[in-house]
Amino acid sequence: MVKFGQISTIKLNSTFSYKIYDQTAQLPSNWNDLGHKNIFLSAEYLAILEKSAPVNMTCHFIGLFQNEDLVGIAVSQFLDLNKLESFGDRDRCIRAQLRKFILKNFSSHVLLIGNNMLTGQNSFVLSEKIDKIQALQLLKKAAEELKAKFKFNGKKVHITTFKDFYESDVKNFKIDEFKNNYRYSIQPNMIFKIPENWKSEQEYIDSLSKKYRDQYKRARKKAIGIQKRKMSLDEIIAYEDTIYDLYFHVAKNAPFNTFFLTKNHFRIFKETLKDKFLFYGYFIEDKLIGFNTLIKNGDAIDTYFLGYDDSIQREKMLYLNMLYDMIAYSINKGYKEIIFSRTALEIKSSVGAKPIEMFGFMEHSNTQINKQVSKIFPYLEPEVIWQERNPFK
Fold first, then answer.
1. Hey, is 177 helix, strand or coil?
2. What integer pLDDT is reported at residue 244 of this predicted model?
3. Would you tell me which of 31, 305, 336, 383 could form a disulfide with 299, CB atoms 3.0–4.6 Å apart?
4. Which pLDDT score, from 0 to 100, does residue 89 have?
5. Per-residue pLDDT at 303 exceeds 80
6. What is the arithmetic mean of pLDDT over 239-264?
7. Is the overall model pTM greater than 0.90, yes or no?
């Protein structure tokens, strides 16, 4: 058994192998040859996880090799749900209590290949030298080794999951290594595709039907008196306590959480990614009443965490105005799409985002429980009832 802190090398065959890294300092010098394709697998982003991951999360980084050539990179996260004081306080129904009981008693240790803090395929990036099936076979072996390492350190993994794959990727999981996995689908990823001919926010406004153009005008009128500004690292540090209070209020009132950010998370993000991480504060006079964050990821903008004073949010339609601001920025800067992720589905739909179904594959370490996962899983995922909107003419 190779303990944590040591780099382990395991071969799939004479050609392909993988290495598991505990620290970004151990990563190969050419990691970003692949990491540049997705900022969430870059060495810089992984360093953010290393410095400011949630307290109940342990991250590892996986390199896939063809002989000595790096042909794939991936991230894994271990979640210890026993360290959470709350899974979210919004829902207090019997179903929510049952979900918490199941998680605490049968599924509290979760190992992911992927990123639980994001929505979308941020599990791995591959070169053309390795196909997805070979990569999945390697990653499955890596997951088994990580499970053994955690067990050696006194933490048995209950659930192993590969998360957030598109429908076109599902066929790659039809291999022996995943024959005992349950395929699941949870809330969709809300994605806003920006037409190539749009060059300004006005073209977005002109494309809206009367009902949703009136919604836009009403929201903008409500926001009169709020000043929005891009915040520097020094300002993020100066407002850190308020920022965290605003974030935590929103997070704690979500229907379900498996982690909470650390207070220094946004500071570390800005220090590391600099201009690729945008932090916008919303002020009334000199009081910070809300914020949102954006990440530049190639030709896409990924929306990240936000926070707000709920009483002002309702009065000023602050969240809706934030969505419009994100759309305006992305159009003006020439991005192709906005990844709005999987919360607040209906309101994101009302501004033009479309739901894209995502799939995951999971297996419980207890074979008897694993046979019943298809019956148990619906109790683990909060039920969301929403109506898709189409705001365009």
1. helix
2. 97
3. 336
4. 47
5. yes
6. 91
7. yes
Fold annotation for 189-356: Aminopeptidase (3.40.630)
Instruction: Please name which of 277, 279, 281, 243 lies closest in space to residue 262, comparing C-alpha atoms.
Output: 243
* Domain 8-186+358-380, CATH homologous superfamily name and number: Gcn5-related N-acetyltransferase (GNAT) (3.40.630.30)
**CA dihedral sign of residues 300, 123, 251, 234:** negative
What are the structure tokens assigned to 316, written together? 């000023």
C-alpha dist (Å) from residue 207 to 31, 201, 204, 210, 393: 42, 10, 5, 9, 6
Residue in 337, 261, 267 with CA at minimum distance from that of residue 299: 337
- For 201, the token pair is 């926010």
Q: Which of 216, 237, 260 is nearest to 57 (CA)?
A: 260
Residues of the chain with CATH 3.40.630.30: 8-186+358-380, 189-356
Find out whether 297 and 45 touch, Cβ atoms under 8 Å: no
